[in-house]
Amino acid sequence: MEINQYIQLAIAGDQTAFTHLLDRYWNEVYGFMLKRTENETDAEDITIETFAKAFDKLKTYNPEFKFNTWLIAIAKNVHIDLIRKRKALHEIHNLGDEELAYGVIDDTPSAEDVLITEQNLSNLLRQIKQLKPHYQQVIQMRYFQELSYQEIANKTNEPLNNVKIKLLRAKKLLAEIIANEGEY
Predict the structure, then answer these.
(1) Which of 39, 74, 99, 127 is an S-S bond match for 95, by CB 3.0 to 4.6 Å?
(2) How many CB atoms lie within 10 A of CB 27?
């Protein structure tokens, strides 16, 4: 089957097509980012975010261009965003002591902030419970237990790529649930 057929199946929601695309292009995108960043963690994070963005915007892919070229372009943009964020943080840390003293913001949450956070967390947990159990499990392990992808793969006895796909899918489904509740 041609790549464009897999892309069309993925657009239609076929999980196997998503897995095929991830498996086929993971090493290429990861290898490219590893050369650029010279940091395995950054390369993996950028690659995951690249596939998440690509899968969310798959309908916008123009088949006149090679799919791997499109993925690499997304990866470059994700990397540039990461560099900008780090540069902004670096600039904040390099302010003079006097400037820094005036720029200090009291980030202690107010009673209202605490209440809003608790309500948001309660809503989020309720929304997560609407997902299928296997999606709930990976979300819980990744974001509440803060396990790495490899640790999740080891605990669930699943291949690493399956865990990554499940998390991408779970985040997308959760975003849809949140968006649908916001419409009411």
Answers:
(1) 99
(2) 11
Distance CA 176, CA 174 (A): 5
Structural element, H or E, at residue 162? helix 160-182
Helices (H), 39-159: 40-56, 67-93, 97-103, 111-128, 133-139, 149-156
Cβ proximity of 166 and 137 under 8 Å: no
With CA atoms as reference, report the closest residue to 51 among 143, 145, 172.
172
Q: What angle do CA 89, 93, 97 make, to 5 degrees?
A: 155
Q: Walk me through the domains of the chain, giving residue ranges and CATH numbers.
A: 1-105 (1.10.1740.10), 107-184 (1.10.10.10)
- The string of pLDDT tens digits covering residues 9-50 is 988 888 888 889 988 999 999 999 999 999 888 898 899 889
What is the pTM for the complete model shown?
A: 0.56
